[in-house]
Each structure stands twice: as structure tokens, then as C-alpha cells.
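Q: My labmate handed me this sequence with no annotations at all. I'd like to see what the chain might look like in three dimensions before we decide whether it's worth expressing. Could you predict it?
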Amino acid sequence: MQLDRALDAYLRHVTIERGLADHTLSAYRRDLGGYVAWLGEQGIADTDAISVEIVAAFAAERAGAEPPPAASSLARLQSSVRGWHRFLAREGIAEADPSARLRPPKQPQRLPKALTIDQVEHLLGAPSAEDPIGIRDRALLELLYATGARVSEAVSLDVDDLAHGDVLRLRGKGSKERIVPVGSYARAAVDAYLTRVRPALAAKGHASAKLFLGARGAPLSRQSAWLIIRAAAEGAKITAEVSPHTLRHSFATHLLQGGADVRVVQELLGHASVATTQIYTHVSVDTLRDVYATAHPRAR
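A: Here is what I predict for the chain of 300 residues:
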């Protein structure tokens, strides 16, 4: 089958039968579009002409590109290529799967970086408690740390999502909803924002149900939320690297250090698999190792 037709057939399959998210489909189109273009440059126009050697040559060329691609990007690209070839072989479009021997690059395990409890307290206290924008920023930061929400989940919140008192409804990846508790500090910060600040912000823009609004009354964007986190880190004089996920990482790490069960943390974070959550247990083990090395008389 011609490459373009084979690619279209696969993209229809993953769109209709697997129901992948839009950004995942975009990644498939981008990765496989580049692969098909590369195959065309090699004079290959039909799926049956793709050999094991051709697939290996493509993977080697991409791995040796300058600047070197991130291991995660290379792994995703190879996963896209393998998925396409498996589909072609399974559907009888191609005689065999030439990507069967392709092995993804080993990715270094990156432990999430969490702040200490003292650092978090300084960060949460950095925005002004008197300035209207500072009150909004403090509410956002308190809510992120109290619930472990992703920044995208926090800026997507509607006011009605807080209608149940001390719990919050979050919409995560794949539109999956979860309910998480909201601590008293976060609730007080959000209440202060709702009563003292949000009505004035809402009056500046079009009517919006979103909880967090910008200075002109429009819904707060992810980029603006990230700038708020970074400004708070600078105000708290935190020299450690701070990312949009830092408060989420800190939330999970501090819960586990406090004795929370990993499966409870999994539910709170909205992870589909407990294996994703277990990476935070490594952070706790590192902390135990540091304490042991410092405190035990014969540890060194």
C-alpha cells in the first residue's frame, strides 16, 4: 500500500477506535509524517518496501541528530513508528512488522523535585495579603499545594467546583473527574479572594464562570499561573528550580513523608496507575537515606 494511504488508515484507527486525546493525535501525525517524509527521501513509496534495516537506519539517524533529541522525544517517536508498523502487519496491509526489533532508548529516571515544607510556607506567603492581585495569587498557590492539582486543572476550575465546602472537583487528563479535600488554609485564602477580589475582576470583563481571573477579567491562563509561581519563588528567595509542577510534587512528597498510603496519593493526584505515583516513594527513600547517613554513628 502507498505510504500516505497506509498512514491515513492508521490515523483513522487511532482516532476512532482508540479515542486518543487531541494532543496525542497531533504527536502521532507529526512523528509519523516526518517518518513517511524520510522514507520518501530514501525512495520508498510502498509499505512492503520498508525493511528492518530501513527502520534501524531511521532510528539511528534521529538518535544522532544535532542537537541531540531528548530521550523522551526519541522514545515517543519510536513508539509511534512501532505502533504504525504493528497496525499494518495486524491488518494485513504489510507482510511483516519491520520495527519488531526496535528497542526504545533507556530514559533516565527523573525524580520529581519537591520543596521543603519551610520553602513551601515561604512561597505561599510571598504574595501580598493586602494587594488584590496578591490575594488572588495567594489563593491560587494555596489551592495548588492543598490539592496537588495540575496548573491546567486549577485554571480550568469554575466557581461552582467549590460548592461542596471542604472538597473540590478537579477535571484531569482525559476529562476524568476526581474529588479532593481542601484544607482550611486554602479554603480561607480562596474565600478571601472570592469575597474581596473576584467581583471587581469579573466586572472588568465578560461574564466568566472560571474561578481564577486575570487583571482584566478574563480567565487566568496557564502561562500567567506559571508566572505567578515563579514570581512567588523569587519573592520567597527560593534558589531551587521551581516548575509549574513543583507544588504538585511537593504535595505528593509531603503526604508520603507524613505517612499517607501511596494508593491514596494516587487517587488524589489522579494517576491512572499506582506505578506513576510510586516515583514519589523514591524521594522519600532518598530523604531516609540522608537522615540515616547523618544520624547513624557507623553509616559512613
